Amino acid sequence: MKDSDGKMIVVSNAEPYKHEEDEKGELACKEVEGGLTTAMNPQMRQSGGIWIAYGRGSHDFEVTDSRGKVSVPDFPDVSEKDQYELKRLNFSDTQYEKFYRGYSNRILWPICHSFPTKADLRKEREYWGKGYLPSNKEYARAVIKSYEPGDTIWIHDYHLALVPKLVRNEIPEAKIGVFWHIPWPPWENFGKIPHRNKLLEGLAAADLIGLHLEKYADNLLRCADKIDANVDRGSSRFKLAGEQTQVGAYPLGVDYDFFNGSTTGNQEEKIREKYNSDHIILGVDRQDYTKGIPERIRSFEKFVRKNPDYREKVTMVQRTPLSRTGIEEYQKEKSDINHKVSEFNGKYGSHDWTPINLFWGGVPQKELIAEYRAADIGLVTPGLDGMNLVAKEFIAANEEPKVLILSEFAGSSEQLDEAIQVNPYNTNEVANAIKTAIEMPEEEKKSRWRKLRKKVKKEDLQDWAENFIGDLEGAHQLHSMVNYTTPRKTRQTGG
Ligand code: GDG
């Protein structure tokens, strides 16, 4: 992935590591769970560079130098050559609140996931002016400070849509890529955002905008068209406000060799012993209303009620790292789920059997791999998900054939045809799929699993990064010829 001329500058809201106290009260470096860390961390550890992100750990700034930098991961067993620089940003609580909880997660997240009723559009202007715009400016300033000619700037996700333009204004010749990790919604949703033009203008200054799927790329181009950008569908480019960009689909994969090859000792046996069940069904999701956890639990309950013969023989494990804990809606969802699960376990469970084992909080990655291996069935049923890496990790981690039940609204369902695909909102269908998965003939299971593993291995993380960086290079060269030979001022007034 390393660009031969310069270093990689990754920019994101979430940091890959935070510093907090561990159970013994000692200062410790912890990996932050989430799709972005999983995607970029292996590459940064391999090739180095700098990652710019907001520092959210309670002790983050005790370990940074005067410029907010720290080498990560600073685990005792990691040598310097496997570390890279993390530059932590810090802004006032009020600004961060309006930027992160406000604009990013109460406007863009619900709109992009087609939950417009969860978007707080009445506050859009306030979140924008006091949170999103000033924060994007701070990120851009940090990028500009770190930049040296030849560097590649790779901006991640919906929190930072204005950064490409803000950086381009200062460094016209910069090579800038954006990867948008969540769905790009249809115009009917995106168009509701008052600052829709500004968001697209911000992005248009990147050389390349990557999304997981063609249909998201199409939605983005259609939105650009709707606000009168000059869109060329044939080449997937658009011009807007004096900038031009290219849009493409790059389905993110996982580090297959890592998940396949990691040793976990006898952890999976211990997990199986703990549940003492013939069939373990596993769900793993960051806590979020898009992940369909309440519907999944209802589906499992339906399965248990409809199939008394399987009681005491099938156990569900749901692992849920907490996220966005300060948002009221997320707190409410958590307590509703707790309530439902304890009611169900109380009614159907026995001395030897807890039907649903719910864990709030994450585990270290090796333990997660052991959980993937201890399970017989992966139950991945988001209401809508840009890609969903858990589905792919479950496949990569298990050499032994398993069954994956996958929502048809997870981006990964486009590649993973051999999973049992379900509508997550149809709890009868999901309950039946659980039965089908348990009873699937061995030969069919093997054949589906072989095909799934082949795909996940081929379209892996490295493949994704190489494709994106390769196309970014091409798009940048093209734009340099068209754009950056013209003096900046002339070009700006031309738009
Ligand atoms: C966004 C998009 C898109 C989970 N529990 C633990 C843990 N995880 C890791 C998993 C996986 C990641 O978190 C979750 O990734 P997803 O892709 O499932 O979902 P989001 O976090 O919502 O990610 C999504 C992704 O970005 C990438 O573009 O696929 O659609 O919403 O990698 O392994 N990791 C550890 N312990 C846990 O307990 N260590």
Tally of individual helices:
17
Main beta-sheet annotation:
10 strands, mixed
- The total of beta strands comes to 18
Judged by helices, strands and strand pairing, the structural class is alpha/beta
Average predicted confidence as pLDDT: 93
Radius of gyration, whole Å: 23 Å
Roughly how much helix do the residues carry, as a percent range? 40-55%
3D architecture notes:
The chain has 495 residues and is an alpha/beta fold. It folds into 2 domains: 1-253 and 460-495, Rossmann fold (3-Layer(aba) Sandwich); 256-458, 3-Layer(aba) Sandwich (Rossmann fold), CATH 3.40.50. Helix content is 44%, strand content 18%. The chain contains 17 helices and 18 strands. The chain has helices spanning 35-47, 93-112, 124-146, 163-170, 187-190, 196-204, 214-226, 256-261, 267-275, 293-306, 328-348, 365-374, 389-397, 427-439, 442-458, 461-482, 488-494; strands at residues 8-11, 17-21, 27-31, 50-54, 69-72, 84-89, 152-156, 175-179, 208-211, 230-232, 237-240, 243-249, 279-284, 314-320, 356-360, 377-380, 403-407, 420-422. The strands form 3 sheets. A 10-stranded mixed sheet has the order 5-6-4-1-7-8-9-12-11-10, sandwiched between helices. Strands 15-14-13-16-17-18 form a 6-stranded parallel sheet, with helices on both faces. A two-stranded antiparallel ribbon has the order 2-3. A hairpin with a 2-residue loop joins β11 (237-240) and β12. The longest helix has 23 residues, at 124-146. The structure holds GDP-alpha-D-glucose (GDG).
